Amino acid sequence: MTVRRLVLVLCCLLATALLPASPQQGERRLVLAAGATTTVPPLTLGELRRAYLGMPVEKDGVRIVPLLNAGDPVLYQVFLQKIMFMSAPAYERRRLSGTLQGGGQRLREYETPGGLAAALLATPGAVTYMWAETVQATPGLREVQTLWRGRVE
Amino acid sequence: MARPRRVATVLRGFTARLLLGVLAIHAVLLPLLFGGVLYLVERTYQDQFVDHVRSDAHLLAVLAGQVERRWLQGVMEELVLSGHVLFVRLVDASGRVVAAAGEQDGPFREDFFFGQHGDGVYHIELPLLGGEAGGRRLRLGYDEAPARAQIARAWRRGLGLAAAYVFLTVVLVAFWGRRMSRPLLRLRQASRSIARGRFDESLDVESSLAEIRSLAEDLDHMRRELVSQARHLEHLAMHDPLTGLPNRALFRDRLRQALQASRRRPAPFAVFIIDLDRFKEINDTLGHNTGDRLLQQVASRLAAQVRDADTVARLGGDEFALLLPSLGREHAPAVARKIVDALAVPCRVEGRVLEVGASVGVALHPEHGASASDLMRRADVAMYAAKRDGCGFALYDPDLDRHSLQQLTLTSELRRAIERGELVVHYQPQLDLARGRISGVEALVRWQHPEHGPIPPDDFIPAAEQTGLIAPLTEAVLAAAVRDCRAWREAGHPLRLAVNLSAYSLRGDGAFERLGAIIRAGGLPRGTLVLELTESALLGIPLRVMEKLAFFEHLGVPISIDDFGSGYSPLMYLKRLPVCELKIGKSFVMEMARDDSDAAIVRGVAGLAHTLGLTVVAEGVEDARTLEMVRALGCDTAQGYHVGRPMPAGELLSWLRDRAG
């Protein structure tokens, strides 16, 4: 490596560090994901909240089956803050009381992406929240809609 | 140096160890417990804060989406005035602030966790919800300080509670530790008391702990066992195991107590010494078991004859003693007679009827002595007087013949002298007149009294014969003489040995056997040992006993007749007995220089002896003239001061060497 090339590399690194980041840099997208073969339509925020509080939601003839993605704590907190508007303990209490009062089934919870993807594929009307890049990297899944876009530091 | 040692001692104590143990356990458990609780409290506060922020922001987003903008500005300012919200910003889809309330410090970085960015503000952004949203977003900054203050307060209270918990634990553990260690300290003191021999102190330890109670019970049990064993040992030390009576030590102790009591309040009392008359014969003849049973019966009889306050003791062997308080001269003889009569009744032992008489000596306090030793010694003297006189009992009388008193005292001490080995054997040389050399010695017993000096045999041999002590005395002398003679022979001096035999020592069963055993054990060649019997003694020997003298001939031990001519013995004995020698008494030999008749007797005895094939020994040769005369009159051997004085065994060898040189 010549001296000139070394100086060039250092200048590039310095410029990268000093230049302000573009608005798009570091942004992440929270999306609603479903199996690629399902016909789950986009849901309103209210429908989504009701579904994740254990209330029955049916849209366009599809009975929505919400699945909890518990593998990523940051993702979970973003979901709670942007979709459910409550803290984790409060959500747990609401889910539990909803299940007990409504007599419905508890939401299924998945710790691993593999298990969650398999459940999405196997369950008609199943939806969950995911980072967009995870959906794109997982075969057989599709984005139903974007739920939130923003920076997570 | 003392302080660190004391600290170390305290740290090794039960309470300190308990405290340290509890503190060590709490050092591990307390952080886990309180730390865990406080962590959960902290998380709860944080979650409550986040829940409040999210729901509050959601409602505001819904509200903002419904109202007009001019109303919204007022709502935003009210929010800031409430104090929970630091700032509110309404931005449009391009990010431009279209409405604002409150001051925002620093950039807006949305939080998803409590304290995520450490700036003390929880930033949250929500889109306006509802028909009037239009892509606008609401940005809010909630103050985290109140939640942090609550958390800090919870930590302070938690730590305070933990400190109080630790303090109370230490106090309670110290209290209970001391409560539990107190019985242990009491046990330690008790065990030390026991180790110091203080067994009588009862062990009283109160504790709620079963282990300590059990330990205390075990220790107390051990203490009781030690008390029991100590009493048993004390009883053994102070009592005769055969009869159960007090022994000599306890009797003397009680006698001393009686003397002390008498000094405080003068009162007479009597001391009886009782000796059984024929016990030795019974013991030797029928065996020790019979003798023991007999002693037990005698003890029972004695105990039955006295009052409860009296003391009956066995001093040893067949000797008993009584201490009779408040007994004076007027009643003592009657009690003594009662004792003698009680022991005169034959005893039935193992199917045999045994007759044992008793001799009782009585000494009275204060007239016969003021000390235990005096009283016991004088009762002993009186007992020997009773035995000698055959009168059953005798009261000590200081006005009796002084010689008799000395003799009686001597006799009582002779028994102990034999036991203690105070008697020694001296040897007087005998000269073979034909060859002119020392051919033998005669063994003569001497008593070296520790207080009175040398006591001549004539003073104690008769007493020994009267009291039966002659048998053990003869056996002791014979054993010593045989042992010495063997030593001389091994040293190159083959001397003949003559030992005097009292007729009394041949009485009683087993006498011949015991003498024979000593002779066999000595291993002297046949004819070396000669037993001398006085002519007068021969007269006292029953015919059946005399016939048994042939027993000695079988052992190679011939008989010599001592003091021949001084008694009235029939010459028939010379034919019947295994006699080898006649010894002419010194009364004839010493006087024959002045009295021709004595010289004639000496010549006649020598002639008779030679005719019968016997040798003749002339005793009492104290000068050269006498020596020449006995040689001329036909005696074979001379003995007397002119030949040599009696001397100890050790001196004899050097004397022989000097003479040979």
Do you know the CATH topology of chain A?
D-Maltodextrin-Binding Protein, domain 2
Q: What is the total domain count of chain B?
A: 4
Structural class of chain B: alpha/beta
Overall number of strands of chain A: 7
- State the low-pLDDT regions of chain B, or none: none
The first-level CATH class name of chain A? Alpha Beta
The strand order across the widest sheet of chain B is 12-13-15-16-17-18-19-20
Please tell me how large the radius of gyration of chain A is: 20 Å
The largest pleated sheet of chain B is described as: 8 strands, mixed, barrel
Structure explained in plain terms:
- The complex is a heterodimer of chains A (153) and B (661).
- With 153 residues, chain A is of the alpha/beta class.
- Chain A has one domain: D-Maltodextrin-Binding Protein, domain 2.
- Helix content of chain A is 44%, strand content 25%.
- Chain A has helices at residues 3-18, 45-52, 73-84, 88-102, 113-122, 132-137, and strands spanning 27-35, 58-59, 62-63, 65-69, 108-110, 126-131, 141-151.
- Chain A has a 5-stranded mixed β-sheet with strand order 5-4-6-1-7.
- Chain A starts with a helix and ends with a strand.
- Mean pLDDT of chain A is 85; it is low at 11-23.
- With 661 residues, chain B is of the alpha/beta class.
- Chain B folds into 4 domains: 13-157, Beta-Lactamase (2-Layer Sandwich); 197-237, no CATH class; 241-400, Alpha-Beta Plaits (2-Layer Sandwich); 421-660, EAL domain (TIM Barrel, Alpha-Beta Barrel).
- Chain B has 22 helices and 21 strands.
- Chain B has an 8-stranded mixed β-barrel, surrounded by 5 helices.
- The two termini of chain B are 81 Å apart.
- The A-B interface holds A 45, 74, 77-78, 80-82, 84-90, 150-153 and B 44, 47-48, 50-51, 54-55, 57-58, 109-110, 112-113, 116-117, 124-126, 129.
